[in-house]
Design a protein that fits this description.
It comes from Campylobacter molothri. This is Acyl carrier protein. By secondary structure, this protein is mainly alpha-helical. It has a single domain, classed as Orthogonal Bundle (Non-ribosomal Peptide Synthetase Peptidyl Carrier Protein, Chain A), CATH 1.10.1200.10. Helix content is 53%, strand content 0%. The chain is built from 4 helices and no strands. α1 runs antiparallel to α2.
Length: 76
């Protein structure tokens, strides 16, 4: 999966009308709530076969932190 594809999938998981950017602050996204965290966890599980604990997801401050969690699976 490319970084662009990941950002699109992540945006869809959070149910946004726009594509996220790497430097975007997650805490400033209104839709970034507990349901979004569940959706992101499912995204990692489905696409990368990774089980990411909730406390790790909650510690992510920006989109690049989420990208770093799957860095071995994301190209470009």
């Amino acid at each position: 999966m490319t970084k662009k594809e990941f950002l699109e999938e992540l945006s869809n998981a959070i149910q946004l009308d726009y594509i996220l950017k790497e430097d975007q602050d997650l805490n400033k996204i209104e839709e970034y709530d507990s349901l979004a965290l569940l959706s992101i966890s499912a995204l990692f599980s489905e696409h990368f076969n990774l089980e990411i604990e909730g406390n790790i997801l909650r510690s992510c401050q920006n989109v690049s932190d989420l990208i770093a969690l799957a860095k071995d699976y994301i190209k470009g």
